Amino acid sequence: MKRIVQAVVGLAISAVALWLTLRGKDLGAVLGAMRDADYRYLWLYVPFLVAIHVSRTVRWGILLEPVAKVPWSRLNAVSAVGFMALVILPFRLGEFARPYLVAERPRIRVSAALSSVVVERVADGLFTGLLLVVSLLFVPDGTPGIRVLRAGGVVVSLAFAVVLAFLVLAYRNRTRAVALVTRLLAPVSPRIAARAGGMLDAFIHGLRLVPSRGKVALFFALTAAYWGVNAWGMVVLARGFGFHLDATAACTLLGVLVVGVMIPAGPGMVGTFQGAVVLGLGLFAPKAIVATHGVAYANVLWAAQLGFQTAIGVFFLFSRHIQLGRVFSAPAEVGAGLEAEETQYRAEG
Question: Which N-terminal stretch is annotated as signal sequence (predicted)?
Answer without folding.
Answer: none
